[in-house]
Design brief:
mainly alpha, two-stranded antiparallel sheet, 5 helices, 2 strands, about 10% strand, elongated, Lambda_DNA-bd_dom_sf, signal
Length: about 80
């Protein structure tokens, strides 16, 4: 998957547990675990905003685009 979630890195930098973040963001620990384990297919902007607010970071600190090696560039219009 070309988008990698770096939530574990930001949690370590902030010395915060996943459960503490789940409580602060008001999201279930199970859903946050899916996001942390990079198995999520989507994230709501409101959830991303809440995580960024609690962790005092930017979306780019949590998400990284890594293109597939076999994918070709998309044509520009």
């Amino acid at each position: 998957m070309p988008i990698i979630v770096r939530l574990d890195v930001m949690l370590a930098r902030r010395k915060m547990s996943l459960s503490a973040l789940a409580a602060a963001v008001d999201i279930t620990l199970a859903n946050l675990s899916i996001l942390k384990s990079d198995k999520a297919k989507a994230i709501r902007f409101s959830t991303l905003e809440a995580i960024c607010q609690v962790l005092e970071c930017q979306p780019g600190d949590l998400l990284e685009f890594v293109p597939d090696e076999d994918s070709s560039p998309r044509p520009s219009h």
